[in-house]
UniProtKB/TrEMBL annotation:
Residues 22-207 form the Class II aldolase/adducin N-terminal domain. The keyword Magnesium does not apply. This is Aldolase. The lineage of its organism: Bacteria, Bacillati, Actinomycetota, Actinomycetes, Kitasatosporales. It holds the Pfam family Aldolase_II. PANTHER family: 3-OXO-TETRONATE 4-PHOSPHATE DECARBOXYLASE-RELATED, FUCULOSE PHOSPHATE ALDOLASE. Keywords: Lyase, Metal-binding. The keyword Acyltransferase does not apply. NCBIfam families: PRK08130.1. SMART domains: Aldolase_II. InterPro entries: Aldolase_class_II_sugar_metab, Aldolase_II/adducin_N, Aldolase_II/adducin_N_sf.
Amino acid sequence: MNPQPSTTAETADDEAVDHARSEIVRVGTSLFARGYVHASAGNISAKAGDHHLITPTDAALGFLEPGRLALVDARGEQVAGDRASKTLTLHRRICAADPTARFVVHTHSTHLVALTLAGVWSDDDVLPPITPYYVMKVGHVPLVPYHRPGDPRVADLVTAHIADRAASRTPIRAVLLDRLGPVVWGPDAATALAVLEELEETARLWLLTDRRPEPLAEHALDELRSTFNAAW
């Protein structure tokens, strides 16, 4: 009897999908418990091999069920789970534009949405570099003008920002959608969460202080660049 062909690659893909499922559920539960998301606002995705997993449309992130997450193949066709979030195109385009992006989170975090209503620092940098950890963990965050939720044109704008910043050697880890909130990404859940949390807390500080603090001085920024390779 001829031996069966190896299924090592398939097993690896299955393990990657299972791990992505558990990470998405874990992150959703954590974000909900700490007040970063509410109701059915926001979405989370992870790249698993050639596939993407993303939260279903109108899913409450604090009560996700692993088996109901939408599984999408390399062609962008859904192969399992509930209907994928309407932001699927944006998530997939971010991962294609930035090879380091494997975990993407979009929330309607209160202080960041409030920042877009009150007025950002600038369209290229929604917040000034007022703390060293904002510079080190977040970096530049551009504002994306308002479009309706799920508008495919947003993906073009976000990937253009990724390309522009990569060309200037100051890669970005996040954008802020006007009136909708942040989209952040990283190579894993922990990195993406660190960006989101630092970004939201800096917006909170900025608003609590009536947007008065001056940015860090240029010599302080230079020190963060040279010591920690901060992308600023």
